[in-house]
Structure formats: structure tokens, C-alpha cells
User: What shape does this take?
Amino acid sequence: MANTTFPTVDKCTSIGREQHAVVADMDGTLLRGRSSFPYFALVAFEVGGILRLLFLLFASPLAGILYYFVSESAGIQVLVFATFAGMKVSDIESVARAVLPKFYSNDLHPETWRVFSACGKRCVLTANPTIMVEAFLKNFLGADLVLGTEIATYKGRATGLVREPGILVGKNKADALLKAFGDTEPDIGLGDRHTDTPFMSLCKEAFIVPPHPEVKPVTMDKLPKPIIFHDGRLVQKPTPLMALLTILWIPIGFILACLRIAAGSLLPMPLVYYAFWALGVRVTIKGTPPPPAKKSIGQSGVLFVCSHKTLLDPIFLSMALGRPIPAVTYSVSRLSEIISPIKTVRLCRDRATDASMIKKLLEEGDLAMCPEGTTCREPFLLRFSALFAELTDQLVPVAMVNRMSMFHGTTALGWKGMDPFYFFMNPSPEYEVTFLNKLPLELTCSAGKSSPEVANYIQRVIAATLSYECTSFTRKDKYRALAGNDGVVAEKPLRKANKVMGC
Assistant: This one.
């Protein structure tokens, strides 16, 4: 129970704190939620898969009993062991960098953030493993110092144990604070439970964050840095109940995904819409698409310029048109190529070669392209590559948007071959395809416009339709942020194929 000798955080003024140092606990203080289980569950699932998540779920009752009836540190130690034992440290760091920030940022306590963000020096003191929280706290909340539990490792893998002095609760928090600050007293201490009292007593002022009344989380526009890129398969925060439902649904969802993929791959395109509807996939089509190009009169194909949500964009475009439309893209797994119902063509990132290939495809008929080069889950559009604008004046912007309730159909860290399966494993995934007006000739390169001008105009038109924000970020920016690389797939030796393969 929280110590009532401290005033509540709403009594703390945030004016004139620019030179002050604040020390805040995390769960229940900086975050609204008092349980760290969902974040351990995210690491367990993203690194170890469904079996590790199941193991953690089985261990959670023991963790709860120890936490509430023995000691906080014993309960948290069980979660640490069940989650981390045997995992590569590099994998944990990747999830902490690419997956957890989105979920943490959705749960920020507004009153704590008001005080925390007003101070010039920010320190977080938490029982959570430092490896889990440091990337988010420093990169997105501007924390100067993160003092957390340090996990034990051996030859690059976590042992499931923790290093001395153990789990950072109670007196361990106070000792860590004294070691970091020395004789200097922090100006403000923020906590939420009685075990925070030792470190809060070392601060000039201390405030408690009460569990009630419940408050709404901080909105994204209040954060110092927006989270544009994030990864991971799970859409919702995996509370114990949600984790259990996810585990129970995955076998059913995988069978359902296979049926949906088989329907999309084997049925004629005009029938796929109705098959998907019968199998729970909802597709909304807006706008009026142009008729097919007539090769008999030498008419060039239309280039459908799409916003990019998943690798399934061209397939849902084809479904909306009632005919298969070839697509050009950057990288896709061999499995996705095999099950694709449309012809896909791989761009090689050589400007001259790609331009020649796209021109040839347009001579054969209509073509789909996603000039962002990669997907973005948030309401932002990445920079559009301008190459397409130089190759044709027959440009039709297409705004794509999808909705998923359990699993994301994209990944930067995982195996992309599972992307379509995860999308179709959602109970009732949705896609919305909006055909916008064909670009007037006076706005194309043939009328004197530069290719970047044309690309930027189409980006703005699609963004306005979707109520998205345009950015100048690129594929490289995304992969550097999430995976620590440029997102370039090593080229494989060329081989003959019955159809043009791609991504």
C-alpha cells in the first residue's frame, strides 16, 4: 500500500523546474500500469515464440504469489528467469529497441510525465531489467540516467539470474540512488508503493502516484519524440488474459490463415473478394478505378502508386480491380513469392536497370508500385522514391489502409515469410482500398514538372486522404532505427524462373 505521508503527485508544481533533478519509479509511477508482466510477455513472445510465452504464463501465478505474499524481489525474479533464461542478449536488446517503446509510450501517466518532463535532469529508478527499459527511457523520454536491475549473462546469453545487488526494490533502490548521486539530494522523488519509501526519503521533495482515480495516458503529440517506427507481431498489450487468448487462438488462426491464403492463391481474382468475405476478411473499395489498358491500340498501362501497409497491398489492389496486377517491390521471402497469386518483380536498386524493367512492364499492361519502399504502421507516409514519375504519365494514386486486432502483418526483425500468415491469422482483418483521381497531365513530368515534385504531390494527396502526415524518412531510416542495418538484402545468384519473382 502507498505511504500516505507523501502528498500526491498532482500537488507537485512543474513550473520553474528546469534546474531540478527528478527520480521516478517506473511501473505505477511513470507508467499507469502497476504490473510489468505485459512487457516481459512481449520479450518472451518476440524472442522465444509461443512456447516461451506459455512458459512465462505458467510461471506467472507463482510470481504473483511470491510478489504479494513473500517479497516483490522474489516475484520479479521469477518473471526474469521465465522470460530471459537462455536468450541471446542481442535479441533482448533488439526487442527493447524496436518493440517495447510503442507499448511503454501508450501507458505514460500524465501527472508523472508533467513533472518528469519539466525537470532538467531526469533519472528513472526501477526494478525492471535495465536492458528492457533503457532504450525507451533515454531515446524517447530524454532520461539522463536509468538505474535498473542488471541481468546476469554468460557467453552472450542471459542466464535468467540477476547480478548483485539483486532486484532493485526497497533498500536496493535507495542504495543505487546514493551511489549515483552521492551527497547530492535529488530535488523530486516520485513513487507509488511503500517499497519506494526508502529512495523517496532521500529526495528534497517526494510525491506519491495513487492508483486511483484512473487517468488517460499521455497522448503521442505530448512526447518529445514521436514513435514512427516500431516492430513486433502483437497488436495489443499482452496482459495475462490476452496472452492466454493469444496462445489459444494461434493454432486456430494459423489454420484459418492457410484457408484464406489458399483462397487468394487458387481462386480466380474476381471470386477472391467473395471468398475473403465468407472467411471473415473485410475489404472496402472506394473510388473509381480506371479500365484496363488496351494493348491492341498501343495504350500504355497505368501505374498504380500505392501507400504501403503490408506486402499484401498489390493483392488487395488486384482484388479491388477484379484482375491480377503485377507488382514491383524491394524484398520478399521465397515463401511469399511461391504463394503470391500475382506476378511480382524484384527491384535491384540500380536506377537504370529498374527504370528499364518498369517501362517494359508498363508496355505489357497495368502495374502496381509502393514507392515508400517499406511499410510504416503509424499514420505517416515515408518519402516517395521519384523514379516512377519519370517513367509514365499514367499515374493513379491509391490510398491503402488496414486494421488488425491481434497480429501485425509486417516485421523488420523477424522472418518476412510469416507476414501474410500473421495478417490472415487475425480474427477479422480489414483492408480499405481507395482509388484517387488519375493525375492530370499538367502535373506530370511531361508538363515540365520534376520527378520529385510529382512524387511529393502524390504523397501529399494520399496523406490527405488518409489523414496521415508526410515525412522525409526512408527505408534506410526505418531499418537503422529497428534493426541497426540499412535494410538491404544480400543479392543471390540470378536464376531462371517460370515467372518473374520479386518482393
